[in-house]
Amino acid sequence: MLVETRRKNQEEKLPFQNFHQMLYNETMLAIVKEIRDIVKWRELLGQMVSREVKARYKQSILGYFWIILNPLAQMLVMSFAFSIILRIPTNATSNIPYSVFLFVALLPWNLFSNSLSSACGSLVGSASLITKVYFPRTILVLSTVIAKIIDFGLALTVLIVYMVAYQLPINLNILWVIPIFLIQQIFTMGLSLFFAAANLLYRDIQYLLSLLLILWMYLTPIIYPADLVPERYRIIFQLNPMAVIINAYRQTVLGGGMPNLMSMGIALAVSVLVLLVGFSYFKSREKIFSDNI
Questions:
Q1: Is 21 helix (H, G, I), strand (E, B) or coil?
Q2: Residue 36 class from Cβ within 10 Å (0-12 exposed, 13-18 middle, 19+ buried)?
Q3: Of all residues in the chain, what percent carry a pLDDT higher than 70?
Q4: How far apart are CA 138 and CA 70, in angstroms?
Q5: pTM higher than 0.85, yes or no?
Q6: Separation of alpha carbons 224 and 286, rounded Å
Q7: What does the pLDDT read at residue 149?
Q8: What is the largest CA-CA distance in the chain?
Q9: Which DSSP string do the residues of 144-175 spell out, in sequence order?
Q10: Of 240, 232, 249, 245, nearest to 212 (Cα)?
């Protein structure tokens, strides 16, 4: 009887497992096809990235220096407020100043936040292209994310200067930054696709996203170390991929060690899931984009 019951349960679960597997395979095939289309339209992607970067600072006096000035000013003000006035400890080695401790987390967070904010309005801001010309619509979102990565690369020079000035040690574990960065971009791209499509259909999404990013920032250990979080609330941070990613950056850049591989594995799994869901939602709404411009 027990064997027959188990067999029946397995037979009942099998259709659902097959359905989920089929759905996963279809989504992965769609992503591969989309990547091929993006490669085919790579010249358009390059032009959009160039336009995105140049247009923002075209008529400004300081030009691209704003890319460095904005996060630098933000870091200086926050360092004064949280390290001098509120005296938040870093719980790190004594020769690591709070400004560097903050900047290591603030730069990737700004990349994440700015990417989402720009991607959210990317479809709305390209209405004429969507209604008149055919090309992979994901290029509109991808170009804004790549443009923010370029900004991130320029702002990164400030952190390098700080680390050299304070003579902070660097070892080969710094190379872990590369997979950490890739995981962050997978997560960012999934959310960007979702919010871009949702904002085109429901314009309240852009305001909801602004509020969400403010709350999300304070729930991520950027201005404070994760060690200060009470034990009973740490589940919130364990379920927050950006908290895991920010901690991983600090562990490799400031601590000189390896990130927590189990936490990074979970973050990767969540990021891939978010990408699959975001891409699926984007493609399911793509046919009605022109009707909602």
A1: helix
A2: exposed
A3: 88
A4: 28
A5: yes
A6: 41
A7: 95
A8: 81
A9: HHHHHHHHHHHHHHHHHHHHHHTT----GGGG
A10: 240
